[in-house]
Design a protein that fits this description.
Helix content is about 15%, strand content about 15%. The chain starts with 9 loop residues before the first strand and ends with a helix. By secondary structure, the protein is an alpha+beta fold. The protein has a six-stranded antiparallel beta sheet with strand order 9-10-11-12-13-14, with helices on one face. Helix 5 (about 320-330) crosses helix 8 (about 415-425). It is globular and about 60 Å long. The protein has three domains: about 10-115, no CATH class; about 125-280, no CATH class; about 310-425, no CATH class. The chain is built from eight helices and 14 strands.
Length: about 425
């Protein structure tokens, strides 16, 4: 017989710019049932396309990293002639229908992934595969720490990030500006808030983003709140304000989606979903995982022309830093992709084909360009006039509807504002 999980619509309300919009998701039954099986029964028999029984390969991995999936005896022939999507229809012993591109369980070369595909968010962080010893924060070897060259501003908080790319897969870099990550990818980001006065820093949350399937919206985006003893973190379904008595707010899953691209124009994001992983952000010499490492390890389907990427810069050297900050803090919403706010005509991303700073999308969509929807300061960047430049005014604002970014920060980035002021005054003499 053929067995499939029933799919139904889950209705969710979410806020955006003071409005309420309705969005339907069609995976609630499958995810709920999967979570029940995972939490209650562990690996269980599940129905497959041919009526047989396979071990469920989506069980949550424990701290030891067990539950790895071994590939190599699948129906895919290694050249893409499998089931067409490679999204792991087979079981953990390589009997799947993978198409040979690393996304499925069977690629015909005996490859082993350290982690199975994660189909639902586990209830606690220790079950996500980041640590081999959670209380002592021992990170698994397959979770590679990285740091974007231009980090997202988070009110000066300390952050660490780890990336897992399945060993049997590559990142599709056919579009060098918007990488497509394989099914099974996981990324974690940890937030530590400075202590009050002479107090110790506080570990408040760790976020998880994981690709669950081949479709554009097949992603988990959640946050885990740490307990006061920093021994375990629990899955949140709603956001938390002033977590553990700090000034840090933990986002809800819908807020995660708002920045990472599964809400369309109602939020932001790009098709890559992972905003800090790409040529611009990893194309520099880092002691952690960087672009050169991914190239040397064969993790990219196509390599860029160089392992180091230099941003276009202005004659006085102020544009590159500004462009990098825009790329990290603004470009995930303000871009030309379908997921971004493309209707504004504002593109604040850096692209790998850009050579001249005054021919970039950033320059062309900001300097002396009318600012839609913000009548108080009608021009985005006015050379030589910081106070008349809407981007500067909004980046400096906090606590009102005018602030940018709209979420995730309560304090302005003074260093970034200083860089932006220098660039505006380079464009034209400031008074």
């Amino acid at each position: 017989m053929t067995c499939n999980f029933t799919r139904a619509a889950e209705l969710r309300w979410f806020p955006r710019c003071g409005h309420l919009a309705l969005r339907a998701y069609h995976d609630v039954v499958r995810r709920s049932l999967s979570l029940f099986l995972i939490a209650s029964l562990g690996p269980v028999a599940a129905c497959t396309e041919d009526g047989g029984s396979d071990d469920l390969d989506g069980e949550v991995s424990g701290e030891s990293g067990s539950g790895s999936e071994v590939t190599g005896d699948g129906d895919g022939d290694g050249d893409g002639d499998g089931d067409g999507d490679g999204d792991g229809d087979g079981d953990g012993d390589g009997d799947g229908d993978g198409d040979g591109d690393g996304d499925g369980d069977g690629d015909g070369d005996g490859c082993t992934n350290s982690l199975p595909v994660l189909y639902v968010a586990p209830p606690v962080l220790s079950m996500t595969g980041l640590y081999t010893d959670t209380p002592n924060k021992v990170v698994a070897d397959y979770a590679r720490e990285f740091e974007p060259r231009y980090p997202l501003w988070s009110d000066g908080e300390e952050k660490r990030r780890w990336l897992y790319i399945p060993e049997c897969a590559q990142i599709d870099t056919s579009d060098m500006d918007f990488w497509s990550f394989p099914v099974g990818t996981r990324v974690w980001k940890e937030f530590v808030v400075p202590g009050e006065g002479s107090g110790p820093p506080v570990l408040v949350e760790t976020r998880l983003i994981a690709r669950t399937g081949p479709q554009p919206d097949d992603w988990i985006m959640v946050a885990y709140a740490w307990d006061a003893n920093e021994e375990e973190a629990s899955l949140l379904t709603m956001g938390v304000v002033n977590a553990l008595g700090t000034n840090h707010d933990i986002p809800s899953p819908l807020q995660c989606q708002q920045c990472h691209g599964t809400l369309g124009n109602l939020g932001g994001g790009t098709s890559s979903r992972l905003n800090g992983v790409g040529v611009v952000q990893l194309g520099y010499d880092s002691s952690l995982l960087d672009l050169e490492d991914l190239m040397d390890e064969g993790k990219l389907s196509a390599n860029p022309s160089s392992a180091e990427f230099e941003l276009p810069d202005s004659p006085e050297g102020h544009a590159a830093e500004v462009f990098g900050n825009f790329h990290a803090n603004c470009g995930h919403c303000h871009n030309a992709q379908a997921e971004g706010q493309n209707f504004l005509g504002l593109d604040l991303r850096v692209y790998v084909d850009e050579d001249e700073w005054d021919e970039t999308r950033i320059y062309e969509s900001t300097v002396n360009v009318n600012n839609m929807g913000f009548a108080a300061v009608p021009t985005r960047i006015v050379p030589g006039d910081v106070g008349a430049s809407a981007i500067y005014v909004r980046d400096a604002d906090r606590g009102t509807a005018a602030q940018m970014p709209t979420i995730g920060t309560k304090l302005p980035d003074e260093d970034a504002l200083a860089d932006l002021e220098d660039w505006i005054c380079e464009l034209g003499a400031c008074p």
